[in-house]
Amino acid sequence: MAAIASRPAGLETRRAILDAALDLFSARSFDGASTRAIAGIAGVTQPLVNYHFAGKEELWRAAADDLFARLGASMQQRLEGLRGVDELTTAKLLVRHFVEFSAANPQLHRLIMQESKQAGVRLDWLVDTHVRPLYENTVATFGRLAAAGQIVAVAPAHLYYLITGAGATVFVMAPECVRLTGVDPFTPEFVSAHADLVVDLLFRIPTDPS
Amino acid sequence: MAAIASRPAGLETRRAILDAALDLFSARSFDGASTRAIAGIAGVTQPLVNYHFAGKEELWRAAADDLFARLGASMQQRLEGLRGVDELTTAKLLVRHFVEFSAANPQLHRLIMQESKQAGVRLDWLVDTHVRPLYENTVATFGRLAAAGQIVAVAPAHLYYLITGAGATVFVMAPECVRLTGVDPFTPEFVSAHADLVVDLLFRIPTDPS
DNA sequence: GTCATGTTTGATCGTTAGATCAGACACTTG
DNA sequence: CAAGTGTCTGATCTAACGATCAAACATGAC
Fold first, then answer.
1. What DSSP letter does each residue of A12-70 carry, written as one string?
2. Which one of A28, A129, A169, A191 makes the best mutation probe of the B interface by having the most chain B beta carbons within 10 Å?
3. Helix, strand or coil for residue B85?
């Protein structure tokens, strides 16, 4: 009865449902993604969703947990590969890695943006559980660099939304980008060029203009 | 029977429904905004929505038309106040104006982002009808400045999503910003500071770093 | 082979969605 | 004041939603 998957078959379907849920929740919204559509993509029937997860809200939370766990692991792994590198270079490479992760997992910012437009319990949970650690880490790193005189200080709110906005928007809006510009933003070349631009922009924040 | 409002009362309710629809469509998604909720905010009953508009899809299109008409008029008016100003300064001030408009009307990018995450008829219509003119105008302007050697050339797709992403994201995600940072991004001081940052960043695109 | 437990399904419940329609109301015109 | 047109509402239709449940199925343990 309980939804604790223990046998291999259960874990596989749980994962399939989770992946389908992430895709649909991020592309359409929470309301726009029906549990029937999610089950359909996962290749199972609709009641099975309620067997593996207590309800739609819990499925949404589980999908978010899964995604942010992947983000955390990916950033952590990148950081560990940078032992001994100076903090400015480390920060640049982490921003670059973040842009690349956002390209490989556009669901991340789609899910966040979906909920960030309107206050509510899902936004509160998302911010308190997953977004705030990311934010405070970013602000702390840039704060240290600014204190060391390596970049110019920018207020946290501006900084955070400049990074995420400039870095992730084109991948969030990839379908629009394709129709509007004819360019597929998910090609390795585009992702790399975009990451270069973002890093170039960010780490010269306000040096005086001409 | 036809939904052509002629008497003053009809025009007022039509406007009320349109405003409510814009708020709800942009905050929740197309699916998440029910015609009953829209009617409720507008202070009318649900069948009246179908009286003034042929259906939910047409209401959505009418709300988008209205919003983009306001954007176009606002940009045009700003441009006319800049006769005789050189093109580089004009471009900077227009970007600034665009950021300010995005702050005053966060529904704009919320509506666009809502649809841009997934291909579909609404995205196609939105891009072909409203977004493309904005995009081509932007690309043409920056192209001329680059050709004149006043800024460094950046590929159109990167450029467009850097501007809109860096400039509008914080206002799109204002509820998250408030909970995450404690800062209200809609204060005149924040909007002005953010516009300054975006202009500073954009118009020094890749001058060499230190 | 039987049993127990975890997994999956078909049928179905109550609710809410967008849409429709007949009729009530309000205002303008003659 | 009477006729006509535009505006609005209550009642209601069908479809789709999330959720529930009994029953079927599959798998590993004994």
1. HHHHHHHHHHHHHHHHS-TTTS-HHHHHHHHTS-HHHHHHHSSSHHHHHHHHHHHHHHH
2. A169
3. coil
Distances (CA, A) of A196 to A167, A202, B86, B91, B175: 10, 10, 30, 24, 30
pLDDT in tens, A124-157: 999 999 999 999 999 999 999 999 999 999 999 9
Residue type, A46: Q
Comparing alpha-carbon positions, the chain B residue that sits nearest to A129 is: B180
CA distance A13 to B161: 37
Give the DSSP letter string of B63-76: HHHHHHHHHHHHHH
Token reading at B196: 């300054």
Rounded Cα distance, A157 and A48, in Å: 42
User: Any residues with CB less than 8 A from the CB of B2 and at least 6 apart, and which?
Assistant: none
**For residues A119 and B67, what is the distance between their CA atoms, to the nearest angstrom?**
23
Nucleotides of C under 7 A from a protein CB: 6-11, 16-22, 27-28
Is B29's CB within 8 Å of A32's CB?
yes
Query: Closest nucleotide to A56's CA, by C1' atom?
Result: D18
**Closest residue to C27 (CA, C1′):** B7
- pLDDT level of residue A89 (50, 70, 90 thresholds): very high
Cα–Cα distance, A9 to A131 (Å, whole number): 32
CA dist B76 and B71 (Å) reads: 8
- What Rg value do the Cα atoms of chain B yield, rounded? 19
Q: A173–B116: do the CB atoms touch at under 8 Å? A: yes
Judge contact between B109 and A173, C-beta under 8 A: no
Q: Which of B29, B31, B117, B160 to mutate to test the interface with A (most CBs of A within 10 A)?
A: B117
DSSP label of A152: -
Query: Quick one: how far is CA A167 from the chain centroid?
Result: 11
Q: At what angle do helices A87-104 and A188-202 cross, to 10 degrees?
A: 140
- Closest-CA residue of B relative to A205 is B201
Tell me the pTM. 0.92
> H/E element holding B89?
helix B87-104
Does residue B170 have a pLDDT over 60? yes
Q: How far does the CA of A194 sit from the C1' of D13, in Å?
A: 52
